[in-house]
Amino acid sequence: MYDALRASIPSFTVRQVEVIELIAAGCSNDEVGERLGISPRTAKAHSDVLRQKLGVTRRRQIPVAYRALTGDDPLSRSLKSAAADNGG
After folding, report:
1. What is the structure's pLDDT at 10?
2. Domain that holds residue 34
3. CB-CB contact of 78 with 24 (8 Å)
4. What phi, psi does 67 have (nearest 5°)?
5. How does pLDDT run across 11-59, given as a tens digit for each residue?
6. Per the domain annotation, does 47 fall within a domain?
7. Which of 28, 40, 43, 87 has its CB 3.0 to 4.6 Å from that of 32, i.e. a possible disulfide?
8. Global pTM?
9. Is residue 83 part of a domain?
């Protein structure tokens, strides 16, 4: 039973989690692209895939659905990453 449940939960790449964290922090596709060194169009493609994978229709729902599915808070991770980048 647990194997079937585990198989139904989508997996996420490191890059997808980075995008989720930045969306949770309120970044636009332009800002996501700038921070990750990718084009805004590629950032949008990532968010489109994430919306489909998480079964949501709006970009802002991505972090909420991710947290509900995984129990991991992407905003908390994003804030910790920002603090580490700033020497805190």
Report:
1. 83
2. 2-78
3. yes
4. -65, -45
5. 999 999 999 999 999 999 999 999 999 999 999 999 999 999 999 999 9
6. yes
7. 43
8. 0.79
9. no
